[in-house]
Design goal:
0% strand; mainly alpha
């Protein structure tokens, strides 16, 4: 089970996430399925992940499409973990 969404604020950093296989696998799978985006570069995956979820925060259509995409339980779990991590990163950036 992925644990990147439970990192404390001192560990929730770009470097730790791009070196976390669970995070990269979840983000890669989500981006491939949702945006038809493929990359082996962990920096690109991280940047694209942040771009997607930050855009989702201000765009209801993107949020609705993400929820539609998460029809099965496994996809829903990965989406939840990625969204939760984005929220934590944003909270840290604004504190």
């Amino acid at each position: 089970m992925a644990t990147y969404n439970t990192l404390d604020s001192s560990q929730l950093k770009r470097e730790n996430l791009i070196n976390n296989d669970d995070f990269i696998n979840d983000a890669s799978q989500f981006l491939a399925e949702r945006e038809d985006y493929y990359s082996d570069d962990v920096e690109d995956i991280y940047d694209r992940y942040l771009e997607h979820f930050r855009y989702q925060n201000v765009n209801e259509v993107t949020a609705a499409r993400d929820m539609y995409h998460a029809q099965n339980l496994q996809t829903h779990l990965h989406l939840f973990l990625l969204q939760q991590t984005t929220q934590l990163l944003d909270q840290l950036a604004h504190s």
